[in-house]
Amino acid sequence: MVDTNFGQNTDDFLNGGFDLEMYNRHHDVRIDDVRIISFSGLDVSIIDHLDFFELHEDIFECSLSGRISSLDVSNLPTNLCLTGHELLVITFGTPGLPRITQVFTIDKISDKVQLDDKKSQMYDLHFVSSSFINNIFRGVSKSYSGTISSTVKSIFQTYINQDISSNAIKINVEQTMGDYKVVIPGWKPNVAINWLRRKAVSLGHYPSSNYVYYQDLDGFNFVSLASLYNNPVVATYSSLPVRSSEAREEDGPEMDLQKSLTNIERILVKGFDQSTESLNGTWSSTLLIHDITTKSYENFLYSYNKNFQPTKTLNGYPLLPQLTDHFSVQPDARNYMTPKHTGIHGGVSDVDGLKTIDYPDNEATWNHLQQHDAELNHLQFNSIEIVVAGDSNRRVGDKVAVQAPDVTGGEDNSGLDTMVSGIYLITKIKHTITPNSGHQMHMKLCKDSYGWGLPNEFVHEGGEEKGIGGVYHA
After folding, report:
1. Residue extent(s) of CATH 2.40.10.10 domains in the chain
2. Coil/strand/helix, residue 311
3. Looking at the domain covering 139-226, what would its CATH class be?
4. How far is CA 91 from the centre of its chain?
5. What are the tens digits of pLDDT across the range 189-203?
6. What is the pTM of this model?
């Protein structure tokens, strides 16, 4: 096993002056090993050939993925006979935090480029979660009854990961409300789960219908955004320059771990696109349900400001002003139309002379369709991308706070940009880890609300436009 610590003096390491569990400098990381293992008996470490590797987490993707860039003088693809049947095992971690071991399947190799010395080459090995490969080879052709959460768990354990040992990859499933009968017509497991995700309504956070299905470094999750919003803030990131010397403790060589890990090195504030949001039903929509059994129809309207619930958001204040809003009052911004077949599952039951229709609203489209699409759009309406030092404890789905200075706040920039600062959800993480440069994370953060009320009108005072009607919420 090789321990890689970027930028560490070799003599210090050999002379015992280096603590493997001490966070020594900005972006510090330990890469314990990177191994290729095959079912034919191959088991070899390639850490000495590692240039860098990337690992991707995404709250809107079903599996982890990434790539390893290799600087190779031994022609490993030929000498190891790599064919895509191999596993890749990576063990790494931030010093002072638990190590992470992940097992992937090597999925693809990029074009090999020979370097000028004619003796070495560079190429990328792309890898995916092994569960994604299981998803490719299997189809779900089965009927289910019960809650959506129980159906999802059954599909996962039957088709994606049948391992029930203590070391198996687990799935965290949030309980849903209502019983449904569904028939899955030969779909891939991930397709089936994502179809069910759109129908799920949270039992603990009713009427939230904003489920996501994703994998992080701890396992799989089938949970509502509302449940993630309800979690505590795990870190506060500040857009203030912190150099290694400033983060280091005065009485020793060890750095302030939290100060180093929560410093925003770069920040990119994304803009909004109201035309696209309106067409996607973010603010308002109309749903027409036609019952092909009774030949009747119903209309359901969705309006953002009428449906807004402060307790089920990240920051508590809506994305649109209350009094001057002209987006959420346009019911024809997006039109849905879906059929309904009363009694399609089970027909009519007779209990003590009382005839009832089994599963009369089995689809219950009115209860989830508009709400689901709108709430996922709300989260992505406001987003920023930040670069921070790598932290092996951080996960997509984590709730974090951001303090961004107001660039017009004077020389010391002591004021906060209230539109950018606030509580966010991490939706994407790209871990970039190199033996020489350490661990860096590119993260996408999204928020579905503001920390202060938007002004409903502006007044002109002293040559400045000043909004009124807004309240800041700390």
Report:
1. 10-134
2. helix
3. alpha beta
4. 22
5. 999 999 999 999 999
6. 0.86
